[in-house]
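Input.
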Amino acid sequence: MWMMLDIINSSGVSSEAFVADVADGSDGRAPPAWMRVVGIIGAAYVVVYCAIGVWRDDLYVSLSKSSSNGPHLHGPLARLCFAGSVMMSIGIVGFLAPEFGGGAFDAAARRRRFGPIFAVGLAFYVGSPVIAGLRS
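Output.
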């Protein structure tokens, strides 16, 4: 174990940090608290924005950074986009939220658990404006 600590020390990581990570079981890749808060607030904002658009039956979604107009989704496509935003938000919040019971942050396990939910949501969210663009 001491040889491992010497190798880690030569790479610039303190042995105290390594021992602490090994002791609590975390993999050392936990995002900082401010990043978690911003991600969770952003995910909630996207869901609320899409919910208002579905409620009004006029969901505006722009996938480009330019000032060009994006499609206005109505009916089933708006609901599909909303379902995608909810699934993406579940994936983001599930990855970023603190573990219940004070468990360690394991990025790889969380990515395996919430990554597919996020990917399917992203496909729905991006797919609905693409379908709307093809229909017009």
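Confidence is low (pLDDT under 50) at residues 1-10, 14-24.
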